Amino acid sequence: MHEPSRTHRSTHIPTLDGIRGIAILLVLGIHFFYSGAFPPLPPRFAFVGNVFLFGWMGVDLFFVLSGFLITGILLDTAGAPNYFQSFFARRTLRIFPVYYLVIAVFLCLLPFASRSVALGLFLPGSSLLTANLFYLQNWWICFHGWAKTGVIGDYWSLGIEEQFYLVWPFIVLKLSRQNLTAFCVATCVFAPYLRLLLLQNDPRSTLVFASTITRMDTLLWGALVAIAIRTPGLVQKAKPYLSPILLTTTLLVLVIAFPLGELHSRARITQSIGYTIIAIGFAAFLFKAYLVDGTSSRLAYFLRTGLLRSFGRYSYGIYIYHGFLRVAMKFVFGRAAWFGHSIPGAAVLFFAFFASNYGVAYISFHVYEKNFLALKSRFKASGSHIPMFPATLTAIGSPLPK
Q1: Which of helix, strand or coil describes residue 351?
Q2: Torsion sign, CA atoms 279, 280, 284, 287
Q3: Which residues of 187-209 are buried (b: 16+ CB within 10 A; e: fewer)?
């Protein structure tokens, strides 16, 4: 396999859509599992619950993918005179329309929250909504916890990504390629050290879990992959190590999860070095996916699966709306005698939940979002390098359970 050429990589990369699909399916899976629809499983089927619980890692996969794609876009357009205008305008057109539509709906409903107990539980508090207006919701959660976050508590990861988008273009433009690499490496070393210090006082720290500073290294592992594939000769040198890295990190995650009993997102070892191990593993997986795109390998075939790629394409909308659909599912079926007590009933709801999320996101994209996306062509970077990644592959939101 030859090192990918720039002209080849200027086309759409289906395998990366497949990775995004995996990430959103992981998120949907764990959030459905937490919905209460599943009955207690017999001991011989306990592994099913464990599989769902791994879904919290979906947000880490989103973070790595975001760091990879955004850094790639910025590196490839760094010579453009409209570098900042192009990047921020295109990000705004992709992210803001759906996000602020939801926030606006909540702001309109907020005055009625005191008149309905159900609506009060459904809606976030006014202070959190204010934080969401400025993409500071992750910091609000760091210091106030998950109470009163309503249906949009999972938006914490969107805050991290938006803060990354605001700062990272300036860093990429300011630093040389060598210094940018050094900055990423230093941050990837500093972040787990900081997490370990913070965990001395709070073994299940929300600050560690949701703050931008302590989770930034996951984004920058993806950035390092973006730098690597643009460094002559480095792809061929790195390629033999990707599978061993992926295997090693997978085994380490399994050790942390089972013998050590940390199969959840906010446990001591998981939060200190576990996030790093997961990020490295996902970075290796992403690197491999990039390399096999356009080949006939089994990994490429899997990642190019139509349904998987389709979920990836609509993953941003799915993430934005899935909390509403989860609440709607509990509202409609939660009082049924079989809810939480029937495996067949849970199976039906499982497929209905996934299908409805896909359907709502599909409609949102084609009826509402694409009208804004059509405007992105007016803000293409000019006079820059040939973009290695198309706009359709830019990173989108990240979900995760509390």
Answers
A1: helix
A2: positive
A3: bbeebbebbeebbeeeeebbbbb
Neighbours of 1 (CB within 10 A): 11
d(C-alpha 289, C-alpha 292), whole Å: 5
Residue 253 identity? V
Cα atoms found within 13 Å of the Cα of residue 244, Cβ hemisphere only: 4
CA distances from 25 to 22, 55, 243, 319, 354 (A): 5, 8, 23, 10, 8
d(CA 75, CA 296): 29
| Calculated CA dihedral for residues 62, 402, 127, 124, nearest 10 degrees | 100
Distance CA 145, CA 131 (A): 13
* CB 66, CB 161: distance < 8 Å: yes
Mean pLDDT by 10 residues, the chain (402 residues): 39 89 97 92 81 94 98 95 97 98 93 78 89 97 91 96 98 97 98 94 88 97 97 94 98 93 85 96 98 94 96 98 94 93 94 98 98 96 55 37 34
- For residue 340, the SS3 value is coil
Contact status, residue 55 vs residue 347, Cβ threshold 8 Å = no
Collapse the DSSP code of 272 into the 3-class scheme (helix H, G, I; strand E, B; otherwise coil) and give the result: helix
Secondary structure letter of residue 11 according to DSSP: S
> Model-level pTM greater than 0.90?
yes
Q: How far is CA 311 from CA 151, 228, 258, 307, 342, in A?
A: 21, 28, 30, 6, 27
- Give yes or no for a contact between 81 and 176, defined as CB atoms under 8 angstroms apart: no
User: How many whole angstroms separate alpha carbon 38 and alpha carbon 130?
Assistant: 35
In one-letter notation, the amino acid at residue 373 is L
Q: What secondary structure letter does DSSP report for 9?
A: G
Handedness of CA 264, 278, 210, 106 (dihedral sign): negative
CA angle 265, 271, 274 (to 5 degrees): 90
Binning the chain into helix, strand and coil, the percentages to the nearest 5 are: 75, 0, 25
Q: Are 361 and 24 in contact (CB under 8 A)?
A: no
